[in-house]
Design goal:
flat, six-stranded mixed β-sheet, alpha/beta, 457 residues, 12 strands
């Protein structure tokens, strides 16, 4: 079984051709590995050029660095060997290191996990390391850096400190009513809870935006064949991703394009037109895939050809609605607005079930024909500019929502005058905030978090 006191080693750079490869060793035997492989006991933070050998066989040559505990990434003694890149040489050098008694292969995320356990970073910063590596947009990378630098943790700590102070003063009213100011009777409790609730809501809003940056959004284009879905995909992506013809049923498979909307990575998914009688078996498979994509969409753009008759639109929409989207999850896009519009189609869209849905006209043929659509997508996806955005994950949002709920509950209970129960709700809020930074955690949670990391980080 793996042990936190073991000495671990792994390749820290991607596999494949490259200028250098870095192998990282962390743990109590790090200096012993340096002596065996490089023939020296290096001084901290000095670079040495050495041949890397084992049993008198030269494996590689390069730079060796020593970072003495606790001044290292993991907080332990760390040795880094910088040798040549490639597919074979780094693996040979790693195998030589792993053949040394007491050294084992690092598990995914184990270096960062040790950094967390050795108080080199809190859990939000540890997770931000992986989020930074996997960032798919500049905005996401900047937000990950914010979390890595402690912005998320600082916000949570500020909220925790205010909650702690509030709880102390509340309990003082219970334990020392004669010696302590009348915090409750003076009305200061309501003012303090106003500040706490406001800060909790602000933190939740910023984290929600950080989650969008981290995970992105999924928009699915749905509708009848030849409604303009492929043309819209091509226009939004700026590339000819899909074949566009006037023949219904041209799109047979699911096509995806990656774009950014206000810095948020968005997957635009073009699906086969949904109709009861597909032209052949291939189109039928495409329709089945389209239905699967609809189940996981953040937003469905239901495409309607505004220049064509309304035949089949209602039936197709009812198939889309089978997946229980709320009205906020569907945006009606009236395509081909540069053409003469069909009055019967527009009339139908002003009746139920379309009457109360958001509608936007678009055209891929005229300049700025997509501007109104982009603006609506921004609103529909809930993308708002928030100062100091930091990266976040679903578990952070869940914990913040729970903490916010307990704060709101504390306010309701305070109105009844039950200070004991109010203090208990505040304590519960503090506990959920502790889950975010790792002050309250478990081995199961840590295992789940760090298992998503790459080996060597």
């Amino acid at each position: 079984m793996s042990n936190i006191d073991d000495t671990i080693a792994a390749i820290a750079t991607p596999q494949g051709r490259g200028g250098i490869s870095v192998i990282r060793i962390s743990g109590p035997l790090s200096l012993h590995v340096a002596k065996v492989i490089a023939g020296i006991t290096p001084e901290p933070r000095k670079a040495y050029f050495r041949k890397f050998t084992l049993n008198n066989e030269i494996i590689d040559e390069g730079i060796i660095l020593y970072f003495m505990a606790p001044n290292s990434y993991t907080g332990e003694d760390v040795i880094e060997l910088q040798g040549h890149g490639g597919l074979i040489t780094p693996k040979r050098l790693l195998n030589a290191i792993l053949s040394i008694n007491g050294v084992r292969q690092a598990e995914p995320g184990e270096y960062t996990k040790r950094a967390f356990l050795n108080n080199k970073m809190d859990l939000t910063a540890a997770e931000a390391v992986e989020d930074l590596i996997s960032s798919e947009s500049e905005s996401a990378a900047r937000a990950a850096i914010q979390s890595l630098e402690g912005c998320f943790a600082d916000k949570v700590e500020m909220l925790t400190d205010i909650l702690t102070n509030f709880r102390v003063r509340l309990e003082a009213c219970l334990d020392f009513p004669e010696e302590h100011e009348d915090f409750y009777e003076s009305g200061k409790t309501d003012l303090e809870l106003d500040k706490i609730e406001s800060l909790a809501k602000e933190t939740l809003d910023i984290a929600a935006q950080g989650l969008k940056l981290n995970e992105g959004a999924k928009i699915v284009l749905a509708g009848l064949p030849n409604a303009g879905k492929s043309s819209l995909l091509n226009a939004l992506s700026g590339a000819e991703k899909a074949i566009v013809t006037n023949i219904p049923g041209t799109t047979r498979d699911v096509l995806t394009a990656q774009i950014e909307i206000e810095g948020i990575p968005v997957s635009i998914i073009d699906t086969a037109g949904i109709r009861d009688k597909p032209s052949d078996e291939i189109e039928a498979i495409g329709i089945k895939k389209a239905i699967n994509e609809l189940k996981n969409a953040d937003l469905v753009l239901f495409m309607v050809d505004g220049s064509d008759k309304p035949d089949g639109i209602l039936d197709t929409y009812e198939k889309v609605k089978e997946f229980e989207f709320g009205d906020d999850n569907v945006l009606i896009v009236i395509s081909k607005s540069d053409k003469e519009q069909c009055s019967s189609t527009l009339e139908m869209l002003n009746r139920e079930p379309f009457k109360h849905l958001k509608k936007i006209c678009s055209s891929t043929k005229v300049k700025d024909g997509l501007k109104p659509l982009i603006a609506d997508l921004t609103k529909s996806l809930g993308i708002v500019p928030v100062e100091g955005v930091f990266i976040a994950r679903k578990r952070h949002i869940e914990a913040l929502k729970k903490a916010y709920e307990y704060i709101q509950r504390a306010r309701e209970i305070l109105a009844t005058g039950d200070l004991v129960l109010c203090a208990e709700e505040v304590k519960n809020a503090q506990e959920f905030l502790g889950y975010i930074t790792g002050k309250v955690t478990s081995d199961d949670i840590l295992g789940k978090i760090f298992s998503t990391f790459c080996i060597g980080k």
